[in-house]
Request: fold
Amino acid sequence: MAKQKMTVMDFQKYKDEGRKFSYVTAYDYTTASIVDDSDVEVILVGDSLGMIMLGYKGTTAVTMDDMIHHIRPVVQGAPHTFVIGDMPFGSYQVSCEQAMTNAIRMIKETGCDCVKLEGGINMADKIAAIVNAGIPVMGHIGLTPQTATSLGGFKVQGGTPESARKLIEDAKTIEKAGVFSIVLECVPSCVARAMSKEVRVPILGIGAGPDVDCQVLVTQDLLGMYGDFKPKFVKQFAQIRKAMVDGLNAFHEETLNGSFPSPEFSFNKQVDIPPAKE
Ligand SMILES: Nc1nc(=O)c2c([nH]1)NC[C@@H]1CN(c3ccc(C(=O)N[C@@H](CCC(=O)O)C(=O)O)cc3)CN21
Ligand SMILES: CC(C)C(=O)C(=O)O
Ligand SMILES: [Mg+2]
Reply:
């Protein structure tokens, strides 16, 4: 049976009912259609595509055009899955007008279901502006990769009493600004648990421990496709990279020994080719 596409309202309903859900990334049509066939309810077209699809060192160089180029085929490939468009660095920080213009563009040009942006108290006015334009916004706090340089790198956040309290206040402030859910990345489990109790909207954890409403992972990480990158919070549920390398090597070997293509994979019609003139 085809799965029922989740709505923005369902996020809150699931938290209120204590029903967990899961969410992964996709950046292309084929992967999106595979997630659509699975029970995973939500897809993020993350700006992590800068690293995973484009080979950059981080996410800051990703543009609005890059995001739109990747979100569109994901929406096409996953009609039964809620799709989030990640706002890239520089597309919403400048002003409320800029944030609204780019959020509207992302929705209009891709058909995704909501936008996500990084930041707490400092981004509350931008969040409120986009929500006022009628676009659902997902927040993202804790480790925020777009500003990782000022956080001292890809580091666990909220590790001191003061920074943990600050994170929870960030969550409360963006909840007031109108986010319908919050990604919480790379924090101690107890901080995530406390946050989930102090805010009403669902907390979507990536490296935030078990006591949140939803678990998020990058598909290429959880399927073991991406390579050596393995933060503590990544569990590999499959080894697809190895399966792909094995498949490629089998093709290579059969090419060299001539066993591929056998008649089964060849067009075997006999054609009487007349001799060349002269
Ligand atoms: N493939 C991929 N997966 C991701 O989860 C991901 C990306 N790319 N790119 C964008 C951001 C960057 N992310 C990262 C990257 C590295 C760590 C990391 O190495 N963390 C250390 C923490 C060390 C510490 O503070 O103690 C770890 O060991 O988990 C965490 C999140 C999460 N996002
Ligand atoms: C790690 C997730 C939450 C993200 O923002 C991304 O993939 O870009
Ligand atoms: Mg992101």
User: Anything to note?
Assistant: The chain has one domain: 8-238. The first strand starts at residue 21 and ends at 25.
